[in-house]
Amino acid sequence: MTKPPLTLRLAAPRGFCAGVDRAIKIVEMAIEKWGPPVYVRHEIVHNRYVVDGLRAKGAVFVEELDEAPDDRPVIFSAHGVPKAIPAEAARREMIYVDATCPLVSKVHIEAERHSQNGLQMVMIGHAGHPETLGTMGQLPPGEVLLVETPADVAGLEPRDPEKLAFITQTTLSVDDTADIVAALRARFPSIIGPHKEDICYATTNRQAAVKAMAGGIDALLVVGAPNSSNSKRLVEVGRKAGCTHAQLVQRATDIDWRSLDGMRALGVTAGASAPEVLIDEVIAALRERYDVTLDFVETAQENVEFKVPRVLREPA
């Protein structure tokens, strides 16, 4: 049978960001240096394929520090952790390595600096997300007020409306965050914002690529995990930009093929924690069913690289 034609628009940039790449290297280098098992508090990044691959090499993933023994190294995930976690690891004299993305650490430093200047923080983020918990945990309880929507701004009860600053989770929707910032500035005109945008370059670039392709595709596939904030935002951005049929898939086996019947142009992108091998898998599955013409939609080039901690570069 003749395969139906399909224009496959592949977003660039897509997939791994520098912070994710660094975090995975940290786990791999820790296993190589200290031998297995190496414990990791929370998924190092939000991707089952990556986590399973590291588990096979000797990583043991736990949700809380008390699940890790004192005599084995422990790694903190790329999302960041509350201050109390490394403090407890130090008290237990554990070997620990912090894989927090440097761009998340930047937000932590920013929050501490504002707090030292007497400002109460407002954090724009998703309740319960590890990055939000880690950032809010940099300061004492009550010093960081969380908002998720513009409507939440009306309910804020700060200690002093004239002494506020805001920070954001790094993986939010750029447009949605702008709406919340506008609401904050309208209610608290003197509120201080970040010196430089908190939403990271990778999140911004991936969303821009989706917006650029959304008007010219019939459907959008976002390769990423259901607990990945930046992946879920790509689905939302695609829908808001005009591609009403956007679906999140962890890998090719998750694709809802019936929903793609009759399409002529399909967009494919991936969240910042999805490896290229899963994107290749999706493309291969599409080639089995369609006569694919590949079209790249490039809106930016990325050459960011973060160094791993020095402890991993030193001899054991």
Automatic annotation (TrEMBL):
CDD domains: lytB_ispH. One of its GO terms (biological process) is isopentenyl diphosphate biosynthetic process, methylerythritol 4-phosphate pathway. Pfam families: LYTB. Its cofactor is [4Fe-4S] cluster. (2E)-4-hydroxy-3-methylbut-2-enyl diphosphate binds at residues 46, 79, 129, 170, 228-230, 273. Transmembrane segments: none annotated. [4Fe-4S] cluster binds at residues 17, 101, 200. Gene3D superfamilies: 3.40.50.11270, 4-hydroxy-3-methylbut-2-enyl diphosphate reductase, catalytic domain. InterPro entries: LytB/IspH (IPR003451). Pathway: Isoprenoid biosynthesis; isopentenyl diphosphate biosynthesis via DXP pathway; isopentenyl diphosphate from 1-deoxy-D-xylulose 5-phosphate: step 6/6; Isoprenoid biosynthesis; dimethylallyl diphosphate biosynthesis; dimethylallyl diphosphate from (2E)-4-hydroxy-3-methylbutenyl diphosphate: step 1/1. NCBIfam families: ispH_lytB, PRK01045.1-2, PRK01045.1-4. Belongs to the IspH family. Catalyzes the conversion of 1-hydroxy-2-methyl-2-(E)-butenyl 4-diphosphate (HMBPP) into a mixture of isopentenyl diphosphate (IPP) and dimethylallyl diphosphate (DMAPP). Acts in the terminal step of the DOXP/MEP pathway for isoprenoid precursor biosynthesis. This is 4-hydroxy-3-methylbut-2-enyl diphosphate reductase. The gene is ispH.
